[in-house]
Specification:
Belongs to the FliQ/MopD/SpaQ family. The chain is built from two helices and no strands. The chain has about 90 residues and is mainly α.
Length: about 90
C-alpha cells in the first residue's frame, strides 16, 4: 500500500468517526447549554443538575441514532475489507 492509500483509509476513518459521534456530541452540547442558561437565570448551582440530564440525553440520543452509527461503521469496514481483498493493503 502506498501513502495515498493509507491517507485515504485514515481520511475515511476520521470522517466516519466524526459523522457517527456528531449527533451525540451535538445533543450533549445543546442540553448543556440549556441547563447552563437555566442555572444562570435561576442562580441554582447544583452540580448534579448538570450531569443527570446530560447522561439521560446522551443515552436517549444513542438509542435513537444507533442504527445510523451501525450503518456508518459497517460501510467503513466494508470499504476497508474491500481494499484488503483487492490487494490495496
Amino acid at each position: 500500500m502506498d501513502s495515498a492509500g493509507a491517507y485515504e483509509v485514515i481520511r475515511l476513518t476520521i470522517n466516519t468517526i466524526l459523522l457517527a459521534s456528531a449527533p451525540i456530541l451535538a445533543g450533549a452540547l445543546i442540553v448543556g447549554l440549556i441547563i447552563s442558561f437555566v442555572q444562570a437565570l435561576t442562580q441554582i448551582q447544583e452540580m448534579t443538575l448538570t450531569f443527570v440530564p446530560k447522561i439521560v440525553a446522551i443515552f436517549a440520543i444513542l438509542a435513537l441514532t444507533l442504527p445510523f452509527i451501525f450503518s456508518s461503521l459497517t460501510r467503513l469496514s466494508n470499504q476497508v475489507f474491500d481494499l484488503i481483498v483487492s490487494g490495496g493493503f
